[in-house]
Amino acid sequence: MEDHYFGAIKERVALFMRELNTELWKVGVAAKTQHNEVAPNQFEIAPIFTTTNVAVDGNQLVMETIKKVARRQGMEALLHEKPFAGVNGSGKHNNWSMATDDGINLLEPGENPESNARFLLFATAVVEAVDRYALLLRSSAATAGNDHRLGANEAPPAIVSIFFGGPLSEILDNIVEGKSSSKSGPSGKIQLGVTSLPSLPMDVSDRNRTSPFAFTGNKFEFRMVGSSQSIATPNTYLNIAVAQVLSEFADKLEKAPDKISQIQALVKDSYSKHRRVVFNGNGYSEEWVREAERRGLPNVRATVDALPVLVRDEIITLFETHKVLTKEEMESRYHIYLERYSKQVNIEAGVMVDMAKRMIFPAVSSFAASLARDAASLAAVGAVSAPQEKRTKRIAELAGELYEETEKLERVLVDAQEIEDPFTQAKTYREKVVPQMAALRSRADSLEKLVAKKAWPFPTYEDLLFDL
Q1: Angle in degrees, CA 294, 297, 301, rounded to 5
Q2: Residue 421 phi, psi (nearest 5)
Q3: Cβ(245)–Cβ(128) below 8 Å
Q4: How far apart are CA 113 and CA 315, in angstroms?
Q5: DSSP code of 282?
Q6: Which end of the chain is less packed: N or C, by CB atoms within 10 Å?
Q7: How far apart (Å, rounded) are the C-alpha atoms in residues 55 and 92?
Q8: Residue 278: is its pLDDT beyond 70?
Q9: Domain ranges in the chain?
Q10: Over 50: is that where the pLDDT of 186 sits?
């Protein structure tokens, strides 16, 4: 029976994936792989790498098609970043690289000194861009749903850092420090553009999975992006950050009589100033949080704290200089993102109040009353009734706490709704409404463990996670 049950689930998922592939092919989106992920009923799909504009459109089509196909199959696809507490959340690996107009990947290490010099220059530009514009990149992945995911053990931390791996980090460190390398050629000292430059092997460890921005051979993976997001904003911010650094590099290179010497100087100077953002260790550890603070790297856990960077003078100047967005457009987006955050939390909190007041509280009260009647009946015939009495009392206590926490949530929700300033309102939702939602949820979760499955008014975690 168990084999048949799980076989039916696998068959249903396989049918969904076949139909999804067919529908995506119809609209010109080709997916290379689909496979199970860590969490129950969690799956990954990887569209084929393409240019940014095409990828952004394809990403929207993939999300829309996943939902449509799931509903046709009698299922619901959750694109929320953290739908279940204690279970892995969902995000996107935004694979990003740069290429010339004739198809040369500028982040391909190559096998000769010229291509290695080019690779190290562009890789160093990415390092500088990520360090200088870390807050901008963090804001690109800032949503109410992603606040539950970033830094929550299985996801990238909220600290923006780059994973290079040991071999490449050693080469760049030695260039900066003028040291010889175990991987260097006959002359010992690493110099760009000469035969002594070593090959650049890709790190083979699995540690890059904990990094929000990891180098994976000939591209970077930006892993902060939330599963419900469009990849348009993260790629726009990443492109403009790297473009700014490259424009500064170009200004210096165009004036240099010796390009190779100038590249050497640029790589050495830039990497020495910005290598603090490179971290090859465990990004999930508390030690990294402390180390990042020592390095001066920002650790922005909340959307509300990430968004103000969009209206800083230097960021507005950056966007206007590259003719991407005007000051008015940046300010508009800032207010729209704040409003979107507040509306999402407001909806979730309102639904939570309704669930607690109209469904959970009546159901658990009724169940507690039935247990009390059972205990009285057992006691009347001299049977042991202490377990029923004890459980009834605990359920009644939690029901009372549930009721109180629901009323508190209603009050802070009304207070937040009456605030007119967008930033102050979003801040209130984050600092008062969200913690109160967590307090209410903890009571409901405790009650779910004590109330009979048939008496609980919603599908249980077991139903949601293991029964398609």
Answers
A1: 115
A2: -65, 125
A3: yes
A4: 36
A5: -
A6: N
A7: 13
A8: yes
A9: 1-77, 89-324, 337-466
A10: no
Identity at 415, one-letter amino acid code? D
Question: Regarding predicted confidence, which is higher, 285 or 243?
Answer: 243
Look-up: residue for tokens 């929000």? 212
CA Rg value for the chain? 27
- Residues 146, 68: Cα–Cα separation, whole Å: 23
Return the structure tokens found at 289. 């949080």
* 107-111 LR contacts (CB < 8 Å, sep 24+): 107/215, 107/218, 107/219, 107/220, 108/218, 109/199, 109/200, 109/202, 109/218, 110/200, 111/199
197 SS3 class: coil
Which residues, at least 6 apart from 321, have a Cβ–Cβ distance to it below 8 Å? 244
- When pLDDT is averaged across residues 138-148 and rounded to a whole number, the result is 95
Task: State phi, psi for 189 to the nearest 5 degrees.
Answer: -75, 135
Tokens of residue 81, six digits: 């970043």
Query: Distance of CA 264 to CAs 165, 321, 346, 453, Å?
Result: 21, 28, 53, 67
Provide the token pair at 166: 């040991």
C-alpha–C-alpha distance, residues 432 and 444, integer Å: 19
Identify whether the C-beta of residue 210 lies closer than 8 Å to the C-beta of residue 284: yes
Contact 50, 31 (CB under 8 A): no
Span 228-242, average pLDDT: 97
DSSP 372-393: HHHHHHHHHTT---HHHHHHHH
What pTM did the predictor assign? 0.90
Question: What are the E-state strand segments in 25-175?
Answer: 31-36, 43-47, 94-96, 162-163
233, pLDDT greater than 80: yes
For 173-177, the CB contacts below 8 A with 24+ separation are 173/275, 175/120, 175/264, 175/267, 175/268, 175/271, 176/268, 176/271, 176/272, 176/275
Say how many C-beta atoms besides its own lie within 10 A of residue 193's C-beta.
18
CA distance 31 to 65: 13
Whole-number percent of the chain with pLDDT over 70: 90
Position of tokens 């007119």?
Answer: 420
Give the contacts of 245 (CB within 8 A, at least 6 positions apart). 125, 126, 128, 129, 132, 270
CA distances from 18 to 21, 69, 326 (A): 5, 10, 44
